[in-house]
Specification:
The protein is of the alpha+beta class and 210 residues long. The protein has nine helices and eight strands. Helix content is 37%, strand content 20%. The longest helix is centred in the N-terminal third of the chain and has 16 residues.
């Protein structure tokens, strides 16, 4: 039995016997040595010196401490939109093959996600955004942006080219000081972008759109 491994424990010798119970000297991967009943080892009842349970308890406490926070909501939202077929937006995420990296899934996933987020610019009020919308949620493809920046990065955002610069229609309308719907109607009616953005709105506007 010496040299056998049981989880994190390796048997290094026989300790002693107490009646019918035989104890084995074991060394844990964490470096701790102790005596464990042989029958408990063989039954799989014990697989560490106790460090594994302490680590698991610590992870649960840290995760519980984040429950109810905005960051926990962000995490839950990306998991659900990629895995829950009953979600209203599943078709735009999980239904298109968008997933979540293994690092952020399973036990401790929230804590690992939170550690990454807090080390990469997360602040209250910011939203998670994928740099490449064809790829999933991962450390390499995600960052945090303002709601306006996030809206501009969505696939449904309409873009226009102004003076050789591509920008969201909403930004162009904001720069021109006119309503986005007005600008869209002008462009759809065939107006050049410079005229659509610069010509004042007046009572003859509806006739000029024809």
């Amino acid at each position: 039995m010496v040299g056998e491994r049981f989880g994190r424990l390796v048997v290094i010798g026989m300790k002693s016997s107490s009646g019918k119970r035989l104890y084995m000297d074991v060394r844990c991967d964490c470096g701790t040595s102790k005596a464990i009943r042989r029958d408990h080892l063989r039954a799989g009842k014990i697989n560490s010196c106790g460090c594994l349970q302490r680590e698991s308890t610590g992870n649960r406490r840290r995760t519980h401490g984040r429950s109810g926070t905005h960051l926990a909501w962000v995490y839950s939202n990306i998991i659900q939109r990629c895995t829950n077929r009953a979600r209203h937006d599943f078709a735009r995420y999980g239904g298109k093959g968008i997933g979540v990296c293994d690092e952020w899934l399973g036990d401790g996933g929230l804590e690992r996600f939170a550690t990454w987020a807090l080390s990469n610019g997360y602040e209250n009020g910011l939203q998670i955004d994928r740099k490449d919308n064809s790829l999933g949620y991962s450390q390499d493809n995600c960052h945090f942006v303002t709601p306006t920046e996030n809206n501009n990065n969505r696939e449904i955002t309409r873009f226009v080219v102004v003076a050789g610069v591509k920008m969201p229609l909403a930004d162009a309308a904001r720069n021109a000081g006119i309503n986005i719907n007005t600008l869209a109607k002008r462009i759809d009616s065939g107006w050049p972008i410079d005229r659509a953005m610069s010509e004042p709105i007046n009572e003859n506007f509806s006739r000029r759109l024809k």
